[in-house]
Amino acid sequence: MSRKIEGVCRVCGRQAKLTFEHIPPRSSGNNHKVRMYNGENVDNVKASLFGIGTPSGEYVIRQQGMGFDALCANCNNLFGRHYDKPYARLSNDVRSEAEDMRKELPENGRGYFSFNLNGFMPLAFIKRVIANFCVIDSTGSMTDCRGFLLDPESTALPDRYRLRMLIVPEPAKTCMSGWMMVLIGKNVDNLDSVTLSCMLAPPFAFVLYDRNRSSMLPVLDGDITAMSTVDSVQRPNMTLTLPIMSARIAAVPTRWMLPDQSLNVQ
Q1: Where does 22-165 have alpha helices with state H?
Q2: CA–CA separation, 122 and 54 (whole Å)
Q3: Could you report the per-residue pLDDT of 29-82, keeping only the tens digit for each?
Q4: pTM
Q5: d(Cα 35, Cα 45) in Å, to the nearest integer?
Q6: Is residue 136 within 8 Å of 178, Cβ to Cβ?
Q7: Distance in Å from the first CA to the final CA of the chain
Q8: What does DSSP assign to residue 244?
Q9: What crossing angle do the helices spanning 73-82 and 84-96 adopt, rounded to 10°?
Q10: Of 155, 99, 103, nearest to 127 (Cα)?
Q11: Cα(34)–Cα(58) distance, rounded to whole angstroms?
């Protein structure tokens, strides 16, 4: 059994013994040994985000799956009780259709796929995703999500966030980033900025955008932010249409996070 680490919970903000939080949930298939590379290594950032080279240097072996010692037991248990199941259900449903999705992918590796959801729980699903981003954010800048996440019935996701979701129906390496600022434009003297965080955990990829720290936002196909406004008791039957991309595109997150004219990362 791993030794408990004392620290600040990345959701509730309390000092406590931190528990291991699976990202994505263990029940979605995140239950096998993984190698986690240090994201502070410049070469690893280039490899993970730009597809330049391969990850190297220090890494940690996680026998129990991808995740972090980042949540107190109360937050960990709350998320597991209320939010993990809807996420795992959709993840497993998408995997069951992955072969058909791959057959329908255009030659350029990009397209759209629609699937029907019966009894889906949109609010719980998006809370699980936002919680994932809180866990990978080591800066503590997402404390404004605390009320939204700790109250299963809350629909008050702060307006500063926009969440985009894509489908990756092929095996690909998991990639997660904290907040970063990307500069966009063709003229270095007149650049726009977008602040975002990304998470690739097949069969899903997510991009979280911070409107308050961006001078513009790209067109968000696959925007699922509206899921946060659905009442917790609603289990709608709905059709979800999302962007779909091949593993070769997903392997280079800068190719799907932003338009091609992005120039720099700070």
Answers
A1: 42-45, 73-82, 84-96, 98-104, 122-136, 146-150
A2: 36
A3: 777 766 665 655 556 555 666 665 666 666 666 667 778 889 999 999 999 999
A4: 0.89
A5: 15
A6: yes
A7: 38
A8: E
A9: 50
A10: 155
A11: 14
CA dist 253 and 266 (Å) reads: 15
Token reading at 104: 């329908």
Residue 258 in tokens: 């932003």
Coil, strand or helix at 30? coil
- Bridge partners for 19 per DSSP: 71
For the chain, helix, strand, coil in percent to 5 are 30, 30, 40
DSSP string across 139-180:
T-TTGGGHHHHHSTT-----TTEEEEEEE--S----EE---E
Q: How far is CA 167 from the centre of its chain?
A: 12
For the chain, give the number of residues.
266
Respond yes or no on whether the N-terminal peptide bond of residue 24 is cis (omega within 30° of 0): yes
Q: pLDDT tens-digit profile of 88-102?
A: 999 999 999 899 899
Task: For residue 109, count other CB atoms closer than 10 A to its CB.
Answer: 15
